Give the backbone structure.
Amino acid sequence: MTVAIRQIHPVFVGEVSGLDIARPLSPEDVTAIDAGMDRYAVLVFHDQTITDEQQMAFTRQLGPLENARGGNITKPEDRRLTVGMNDVSNLGKDGGLLERDSRQRAFNIGNMLWHSDSSYRVIPAKYSLLSARVVNPKGGNTEYADMRAAYDALDAATRAEIEDLVCEHSLMYSRGSLGMLDYSEEERAMFRPVRQRLVRTHPVTGRRSLYLSSHAGAIVGMPMPEARILLRELTEHATQPKFVYIHRWRPWDLVIWDNRQMMHRVRRYDERQPRDMRRTTVAGDAVTTLQV
Ligand SMILES: [Fe+2]
């Protein structure tokens, strides 16, 4: 079988056929996926029945796995999944639903804000791969917004204004906007803000994109309220329906997205029923700006 990709949204998103990701990829398959990612930025695969090990093996063929340390408040002994897998379900270690007032669940609700995975890391993530194991019966769509198209649609004055701006990103900004303001000293150190350029250039295609994320809570050299209003305005612009693809999950779908050029969010769902989604992450390979 040969890999084929069909664009399923006016500005981005490809649907892939002709590939069984549970099996090792040929070099040509890897090239086709990377080229598809560069062009469409989101790739959708259907009917990929995989184990965690197969998901990690598939991911490693696209690049090294990101070290997930420092990305959550869940303690290692409370993890449900093996190291290398990011648990974005509503389930606890025992496989049961998280309690409504659990801090872990509150933290995960932050994924319902528009964001780019790991933008709070000095070297942010390249690709995320999300596999749907148990689909929630109500809601839980994932939405993707194309930050390249959003950048292209800015007027010249705004482009000039934001060209060299540098933002500060932290999980405490995104969770703080939801009212989660209490962190231990250890967590504060772990979630220390990092700097990211507001405008990125794709290393292969040269396309520019807005690097927005709910983790961004400040702009270097700008008073915070002014920075937050600018970020909010840019986010409203960038998430207009014409730039957004809504993915309605079927069991065993797998979606890959390029965090360097996309934002995404999950929509609300029925928290009394399971939603078992498992993510692997391909590490990025470069900083976007110097840290201080
Ligand atoms: Fe995410």
Notes: The longest strand covers residues 127-134. The mean pLDDT is 96. The pocket of fe (ii) ion is lined by residues 111, 115, 117, 264 (CB under 6 Å). The chain is about 25% helix and 25% strand.
